[in-house]
């Protein structure tokens, strides 16, 4: 288009030059028009001059002007605005000179902060902010609309940001001081707790680093006290660095499975505050969630399911000591009774997680071994809530002493016996559930030709005997 305009303007100049040459010429002009007018000077008649000057040249100039206008509209658009690409570049330069922007991969929201206040926390870009950005840009001479600002800030022009990966990748070098142990002994000095808490913290760091792809952090420390006011919940909160406090939650509702999975992909630490409020029937669902590594759910207003890695680890508190109902599943909870009022002074988070990161890089294991899980089960024996069937069984039977006479009982025999004498208390209990209880109590089975049996002694003072 530009070349066409240049060629047309060149042609116009040549035409004007030709006109000047014709006007100055004194040579006779042959032709009927000269003879008819009798022009002694032999110049082109005025009518001819007018024809060239007023018709040919103005038309050419008008055409050139139209082409220039067309070329200008192609560059600036119908409304006279700058070409979209140029306007967006100018808009991007204008905004990034005044603000820092990032796209949060967890919340799927663009966040911003002013460059004049670098210590200010990032805030989510809301509609009011978009309008403000647009007005500022227009005041700066950029003829944009709010949709232009929105299109820019919700595009891949904004750098991605993952809160946990960003935090873990910007930690300082570990100074070699063990800060995990000093944090653990604020709760209890028992070796089982100190060792287990350290292993759990390694699992937290592995989840945040995205390294726990094959084995999730499936154990939850449980802070237990018979009295309130021990600052158990406050201790859970100070485990989170300041930069990651928005990703701590102390409300976890087990009624919505998809909602639970979404929280596992969004939050870094979930505090099951007042753990005893969960019903025994909810424990299987909770233990299943605690073992998940990859989460599959559908986000709001999304047609397809999302497959996201898990980030969250669990911790819990309770004011009741008899909070565990399933002995076989108790390996998922590392219980510790609080010795006194907990020191909730925030630790040096940067060095704390630098230590955990360094230990993981050195090959330290972040998951609990089978032997460690057995130790947890044994350590939790004082925190079991004895089910009704267990209480009835221990009231009626006991294991024999060495060399003592005993009688063989199958699981069905025991179930029928207890069901007959305690029908109300045994409501809802099944033979399978009773069998799992026997295994959890450590009562060994003996294989006979009649099947597996338990060698037991019936108590004489049993009201059912």
TrEMBL record:
TM annotation in the entry:
none
Q: Which residues form the Virulence-associated protein E-like domain?
A: 173-383
Q: Which domain of life is it from?
A: Bacteria
Span of domain DUF3874:
388-455
The name of this protein is Uncharacterized protein
Instruction: State the organism of origin.
Output: Phocaeicola vulgatus CL09T03C04
Q: What is the lineage of its organism?
A: Bacteria, Pseudomonadati, Bacteroidota, Bacteroidia, Bacteroidales
């Amino acid at each position: 288009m530009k070349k066409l305009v240049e060629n047309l303007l060149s042609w116009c100049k040549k035409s004007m030059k030709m006109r000047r040459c014709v006007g100055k010429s004194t040579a006779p002009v042959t032709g009927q028009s000269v003879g008819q007018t009798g022009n002694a000077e032999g110049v082109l008649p005025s009518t001819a001059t007018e024809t060239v000057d007023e018709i040919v040249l103005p038309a050419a100039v008008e055409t050139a002007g139209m082409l220039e206008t067309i070329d200008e509209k192609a560059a600036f658009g119908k409304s006279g605005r700058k070409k979209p690409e140029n306007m967006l570049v100018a808009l991007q330069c204008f905004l990034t000179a005044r603000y820092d922007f990032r796209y949060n991969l967890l919340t799927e929201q663009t966040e911003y902060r002013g460059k004049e206040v670098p210590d200010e926390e990032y805030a989510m870009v809301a509609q009011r902010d978009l309008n403000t950005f647009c007005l500022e840009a227009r005041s700066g001479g950029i003829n944009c609309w709010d949709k232009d600002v929105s299109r820019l800030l919700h595009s891949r022009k904004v750098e991605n940001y993952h809160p946990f990966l960003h935090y873990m990748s910007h930690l300082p070098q570990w100074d070699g001081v063990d800060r995990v142990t000093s944090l653990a002994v604020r709760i209890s000095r028992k070796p089982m707790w100190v060792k287990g808490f350290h292993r759990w913290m390694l699992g937290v760091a592995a989840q945040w680093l995205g390294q726990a792809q094959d084995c999730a952090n499936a154990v939850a420390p449980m802070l237990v006290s018979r009295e309130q006011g021990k600052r158990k919940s406050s201790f859970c909160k100070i485990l989170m660095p300041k930069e990651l406090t928005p990703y701590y939650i102390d409300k976890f509702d087990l009624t919505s499975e998809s909602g639970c999975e979404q929280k596992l992909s969004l939050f870094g630490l979930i505090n099951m505050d007042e753990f005893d409020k969960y019903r025994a029937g909810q424990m299987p669902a909770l233990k299943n969630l605690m073992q998940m590594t990859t989460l599959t759910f559908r986000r709001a207003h999304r047609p397809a399911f999302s497959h996201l890695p898990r980030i969250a680890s669990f911790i819990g508190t309770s004011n009741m000591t008899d909070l565990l109902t399933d002995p076989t599943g108790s390996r998922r909870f590392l219980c510790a009774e609080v010795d006194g009022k907990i020191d909730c002074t925030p630790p040096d988070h940067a060095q704390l997680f630098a230590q955990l990161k360094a230990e993981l890089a050195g090959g330290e294991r972040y998951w609990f071994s089978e032997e460690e899980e057995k130790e947890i089960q044994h350590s939790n024996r004082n925190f079991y809530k004895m089910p009704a069937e267990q209480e009835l069984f221990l009231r009626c039977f006991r294991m024999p002493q060495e060399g003592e006479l005993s009688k063989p009982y199958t699981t069905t025999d025991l179930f029928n016996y207890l069901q007959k004498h305690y029908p109300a208390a045994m409501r809802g209990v099944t033979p399978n559930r009773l069998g799992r209880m026997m295994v959890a109590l450590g009562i060994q089975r003996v294989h006979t030709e009649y099947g597996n049996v338990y060698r037991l002694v019936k108590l004489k003072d049993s009201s059912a005997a």
